[in-house]
């Protein structure tokens, strides 16, 4: 008989859990019920499904490092109690879909650092805080080389994003930052656009003060530059 489901329920303070789920189902359920529990999970190679569900008020998860499946790349972290603290989340999505979803659903949840590296093919990175009062201090995204599409969409009132640094694609240089809720503050946005400058129109004003009726000789400009004398 092969049982691929593993359930660990620690009930003591300071318990440390390390689980390696089955290769076939990759289903790991860890339910900490005591303060100070530390969880480290490595999901299955086939499904890459990892579920961490703290169910006690004041539970602290100091570090969550998840490596999803190479096939689906689906990672879901859902804290469901008020006051849960997740200090560091580092996710590496699948090379095929590059889909990473982090959904805090409880009021007062704090995520101090989120670092995501999307897929090389699609370059899709989505960070969606859905509860009031959620704070994301730093978001660093490196979009795909092909599309260069980066989207950061806070959807809750009072959400604060202090720093957004985006490096778009060399080909399209498309960078989209879309705050959709009232009271969202984006203090710093630094973008490095495409290296290509083809098709860019440059307007340069040349001011030559002269008296009425005086002939003005304008130097010959470079090829392709239009000079308008007013």
Description of the structure:
There is one protein chain. With 230 residues, the chain is mainly β. The protein has one domain (6-191). Helices cover 0% and strands 29% of the residues. It has strands at 6-8, 16-19, 28-30, 38-41, 51-52, 60-66, 76-77, 85-91, 101-102, 110-116, 135-141, 151-152, 160-166, 176-177, 185-191. A 6-stranded parallel beta sheet has the order 6-8-10-11-13-15, with no helix packed on it. Residues 1-14, 20-29, 31-38, 40-51, 53-57, 68-75, 118-125 and 192-208 have low confidence and may be disordered.
- Supply the number of helical segments: 0
Strands of the widest sheet, in order across it, are 6-8-10-11-13-15
Radius of gyration: 26 Å
List the secondary-structure elements in sequence, H or E. Answer: EEEEEEEEEEEEEEE
Describe, in short, the structure shown:
The chain has strands at 6-8, 16-19, 28-30, 38-41, 51-52, 60-66, 76-77, 85-91, 101-102, 110-116, 135-141, 151-152, 160-166, 176-177, 185-191. It has 230 residues and is mostly beta strands.
């Amino acid at each position: 008989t092969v049982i691929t489901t593993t359930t660990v329920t620690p009930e003591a303070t300071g318990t440390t859990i390390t689980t390696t789920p089955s290769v076939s189902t990759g289903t790991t359920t860890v339910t900490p019920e005591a303060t100070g529990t530390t969880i480290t999970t490595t999901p299955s190679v086939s499904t890459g499904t990892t579920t961490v569900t703290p169910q006690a008020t004041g539970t602290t998860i100091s570090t969550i490092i998840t490596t999803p499946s190479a096939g689906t790349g689906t990672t879901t972290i859902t804290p469901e109690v008020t006051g849960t603290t997740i200090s560091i989340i580092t996710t590496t999505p699948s090379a095929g879909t590059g889909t990473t979803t982090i959904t805090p659903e409880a009021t007062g949840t704090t995520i101090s650092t989120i670092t995501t590296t999307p897929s090389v093919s699609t370059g899709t990175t989505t960070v969606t805080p859905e509860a009031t009062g959620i704070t994301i201090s730093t978001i660093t995204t490196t979009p795909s080389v092909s599309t260069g599409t980066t989207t950061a969409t806070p959807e809750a009132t009072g959400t604060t994003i202090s720093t957004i640094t985006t490096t778009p694609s060399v080909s399209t240089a498309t960078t989209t930052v879309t705050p959709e809720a009232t009271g969202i503050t984006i203090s710093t946005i630094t973008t490095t656009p495409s290296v290509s400058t083809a098709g860019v129109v440059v307007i340069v004003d040349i001011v030559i003060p002269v008296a009425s009726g005086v002939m003005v000789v304008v130097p010959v400009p470079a090829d392709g530059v239009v000079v308008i004398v007013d």
